[in-house]
Amino acid sequence: VNQSRFEYNSASVLGESAGGGIKMIGMSADLQRCRFSSNSAASGGGIHLDQTNSTIFELNCQGNAATSATSGCLSLNNGGVHLISNSIFNQNKGVSGAAVYSLSPKQIN
């Protein structure tokens, strides 16, 4: 995903909702020069990655919210290798980290 905007989205499903802007499970994620703004979900208000390897470059993530779990901007769950560089995290709100939540501290390189 390159140079895309995800703004004013929400994930609301009975039970757990995750990834207000985008949710990816079991695949590689390459996000470059993307903006996630004013998204919301129970978990991972902007982005929810599960069993996913990711490269995230020049992410602009602001004003996203997780209402009951994990982080407002970026939630990294259940394995994977993640490279995050040159990114801005601003005014995100979450239960377990406003900007980034990682299930395992060894996931982010």
- Average per-residue pLDDT, rounded, comes to 90
The strand line-up of the biggest sheet is: 1-4-8-12
By secondary-structure content and strand pairing, the structural class works out as: mainly beta
The proportion of residues in beta strands is: 35-45%
Largest sheet: 4 strands, parallel
Number of strands: 13
The H-and-E topology, N to C, reads as: EEEEEEEEEEEEE
- How many helix segments? 0
Regions with little confidence, pLDDT below 50 for 5+ residues = none
Shape: globular
Our measurement of the CA-to-CA distance between the termini, rounded to an integer number of angstroms, reads: 20 Å
CA gyration radius, whole angstroms: 12 Å
Question: Which percent range fits the helix content?
Answer: under 10%
Characteristic terms for this protein:
single chain, 109 residues, mainly beta, 4-stranded parallel β-sheet, 13 strands
Topology of this protein?
Blueprint: E1 5-7, E2 22-25, E3 29-32, E4 35-37, E5 40-43, E6 47-50, E7 54-57, E8 60-62, E9 65-69, E10 74-77, E11 82-85, E12 88-90, E13 100-102
Parallel strand pairs: 1-4, 2-6, 3-7, 4-8, 5-9, 6-10, 7-11, 8-12, 10-13
